Amino acid sequence: MSANVPTDICFSFSGLMQRGGNTGPHKDGWGVTFYEGKGCRSFKDPQPSAHSPIAELVTKYPMKSEAVVCHIRQANSGGVCLENTHPFTRQMWGKNWTYAHNGQLKGFKETLPITLHLPIGTTDSEHAFCWILDQLHYQFGEQQPTAKVLFSFIATLTSKIDELGVANIIITDGESLFAYCANNLHWITRRAPFGKASLIDAEVAVDFHTETTPNDIVTVIATQPLTDDEIWHKMSAGQWQLFCLGESINCSTD
Amino acid sequence: MSANVPTDICFSFSGLMQRGGNTGPHKDGWGVTFYEGKGCRSFKDPQPSAHSPIAELVTKYPMKSEAVVCHIRQANSGGVCLENTHPFTRQMWGKNWTYAHNGQLKGFKETLPITLHLPIGTTDSEHAFCWILDQLHYQFGEQQPTAKVLFSFIATLTSKIDELGVANIIITDGESLFAYCANNLHWITRRAPFGKASLIDAEVAVDFHTETTPNDIVTVIATQPLTDDEIWHKMSAGQWQLFCLGESINCSTD
What we know:
2 copies of one chain form a homodimer. Chain A is of the alpha+beta class. Chain A contains 5 helices and 15 strands.
């Protein structure tokens, strides 16, 4: 999620968490990272989200954030344990960088050598994230470039990762939110006039008109749409987009 | 906490959380980091722990861990916000390193210059942690030394930090837990035969005999004792200790 005002994700998360062991097979752990300014906090559990007391807290305790990354895991590379649970957060350039990956990679250790940012767990996903951070360090050194320069370069990296299998990837520093689509990513931007929406995975509906102000702009990006009565944009294979303060940013004109 | 078996901290945390805005003045946020193997997860809130729904979850949902770091904050350097909330976790040598600081420092920006591990927030505490990580990188490069060599060196760093004010410091990688005492640190090791204990800050008592096995060894380190019917060791100014699998390790003979 990317938003221009601190926004909670209780509605979206109520649907997503059901896919972790109830309406979906992604039962091998889950995590969510909320940004508040430069700070962030993560909630993680290697247990299925549909049955996790921590996930239940996240649905009920409205934490308001301008950027949120959620992940529910279906393990294919690396065992089910805390260190293999997304999203992964690392520090660079005095910021928290958070990353989540959907898909699987082959031959990643050989093709994506790592020297600086060593993985802690054993997933292909964290390995690819560490490789990205290494490449950013080699390319830009100690100085973070502009968002457009940075994420255009990250797009070339995610594209290379995607060649090793399937890599739908989300990366954010809490300001900009980058999304790379390998095969499955959908997004929706909600703004005034707000309407109603109904979750696919739970019997929950919301009238955003009563929850928002006219100036709010909120984008949600998800592997599959979370609601069945709104129009979601489907991203195409190899496409990437950058979101900031709730809106899609055009980077192709740089 | 350091333990030789995965142990929950529900009892100790029930007392500590009261000091964050109820029985104590440390109302400017709180956090706790639980290790499970190489992975860790943190729960943080810039709100007072005594009134935090997240803290309530931590007291009621037994997460079992061999190393835990908790912190309740009384702000003196840096505003009350998420990025200034302890404990701080960073990655080095393929491990998660977690750090918490009690005290305050003066002139830290000039005396402790940082080049590699840039702080995200504005606290003296995180700055000192980043300085420690920089020094570890310069001293040991890409290879982590033995625990005794590493923590003996860290002790020289914390001693230097302590010269800038007050620095009671806890650092762990989930295996070894290092404690440096500036003026206030107490610890207790519980092992068979286990007895009863009563919290100072809440009307809660526990009979550890019914909660443990005879082989369990659990050490709790705290600024001030958490129970009033057990004998806690008081550390002396400038003293440091290393704990591993619940026991104090003698490093002075190295």
